[in-house]
Amino acid sequence: MDHSSHYAGSSMDHSMPDMDHDMPAMCSMNMLFTWDWKNTCVVYRWWHVKTFPQFLATLVAIVIIAAGYEYTKYWFNKREANTASVAPVSSANNSAPLIRKYAKWSKSLTYGFQVGYSFMLMLIFMTYNGWYMIATVVGAVLGHHFWGQDTPQTRSMACH
């Protein structure tokens, strides 16, 4: 029995129309270690690595960011040492408690900045991309070489 005449005028073609639209590349999110760098987003959606030059620029940026973290530790320690050396011993106008309170808040805020900075480095590391991990370590090594030799090593909540 020929059923072709029963559906006159309607097509039974269930294929989808041309779906090959130019879709933007999505960020890949890896939960396992990988060396694949294409379509990785580093911390932010706008830091989307699509091309090899972007990949190289990302490696350089991560090295600079990680070295910058070591510099901030150096700078904060130097600033703290300078603040401690000029702290007033006695004051006739009774401003010493206010200065100590300001110094304590300043120290706490710089510590908070340092912890936030280290967490951002941790997020870069947690892309699970081997290249970005190496860049983070290289930056830490270079930063420590240039600024970390003379600073006391202290343990803190910082992830890096």
UniProtKB/TrEMBL annotation:
Top-level division of the source organism's lineage:
Eukaryota
Q: How does it sit in the membrane?
A: Multi-pass membrane protein
Q: What are its GO cellular component terms?
A: fungal-type vacuole membrane
User: Which InterPro entries does this chain map to?
Assistant: Cop_transporter
One example of the protein's molecular function in GO is:
copper ion transmembrane transporter activity
Q: Which UniProt keywords apply?
A: Copper, Copper transport, Ion transport, Membrane, Transmembrane, Transmembrane helix, Transport
Annotated transmembrane regions: 52-69, 108-125, 131-147
Query: Quick check: keyword Ion transport in the entry?
Result: yes
Any idea where this protein resides?
A: Membrane
Q: Which family does it belong to?
A: Belongs to the copper transporter (Ctr) (TC 1.A.56) family. SLC31A subfamily.
What name does the UniProt record give this protein? Copper transport protein
Source organism of this protein record: [Candida] railenensis
